[in-house]
Design a protein that fits this description.
RNaseH_sf; 243 residues; Nucleotidyltransferase, domain 5; Tc1-like transposase DDE domain-containing protein; 11 helices; two-stranded parallel sheet; mainly alpha
């Protein structure tokens, strides 16, 4: 691109020298149309699309955020788990308890009792590592169905775009906090703070700043965006990347 725009060539060492100590992300897109559009993936997307068709409106409780920060469950990690629904607003918890509490909240809600009393509760998961053992950890319930999207099907899940927007804001904030993250270790109560904790503090602040960006309005907009893929899944059609 540099050669096409400016007619100049840059060696890799020059590019590397300018990227040292600069916060950046390199994303590799794994495109496998044969797997994405296999019969198994199409059937899973069709099941998801046929179940997730009725959409009304919902919102978080007055004074509550759409997303809340959760403490790390193991090691120095910051986990944000969130369930968004047009009918029921949002719910947050940790790991397996996340699904169980989400199920109880929906069963006790006025929206469910008035409009969905005889319908099973459907919880849709992606293929994130945090969801790998959900089926074995969640207690069995006759009216609870755990549905997992097929591989290479993030385009059918509106929450993917919601979290992409939030992560973009986190990266922008951390870029401004680069000097603080790479600076000398601080002192707390007479004890030195580790480098990991020094970097965790601005990360937690970045999470707070970005949480307000995930709103019910954003979810409605993302649902409209993925509707074309959901309609294609109902027809057992293939998925197109970059659409």
């Amino acid at each position: 691109m540099v050669f096409e725009d400016f007619g100049a060539t840059l060696p890799e060492t020059t590019i590397s020298r300018h990227l040292v100590d600069v916060l950046y992300t390199v994303k590799y897109t794994c495109i496998e149309p044969s797997t994405c559009n296999s019969d198994t993936s199409k059937q899973k997307r069709k099941e998801f699309a046929e179940i997730n068709t009725k959409r009304t409106r919902g919102r978080a409780k007055n004074g509550k955020r759409e997303v809340e920060k959760l403490p790390p469950s193991k090691g120095a990690k910051l986990q944000i788990q969130c369930a968004l629904s047009s009918s029921f607003g949002h719910k947050n918890a940790t790991n397996a308890a996340f699904v169980e509490e989400l199920y109880k909240m929906m069963k006790e809600s006025d929206v469910y009792n008035e409009e969905y009393a005889h319908i099973k509760v459907i919880v849709v998961f992606g293929n994130a590592p945090a969801h790998s053992r959900i089926e074995t950890l969640v207690p069995d319930c006759d009216d609870l169905v755990l549905l997992r999207l097929g591989l290479y099907s993030p385009m059918c899940n509106p929450i993917e775009n919601c979290f992409s927007s939030m992560k973009a804001i986190i990266k922008q904030y951390l870029a401004l906090m680069r000097d603080e993250m790479n600076g000398p270790l601080l002192i707390s109560k007479g004890q030195p703070i580790s480098k990991t904790e020094t970097r965790m503090r601005p990360l937690e602040r970045a999470a707070h700043v970005s949480m307000v960006e995930i709103t019910q309005r954003m979810l409605h907009r993302m649902e409209l965006h993925v509707s074309q893929f959901v309609n294609a899944a109902v027809r057992t059609g293939g998925m197109e990347y970059g659409a």
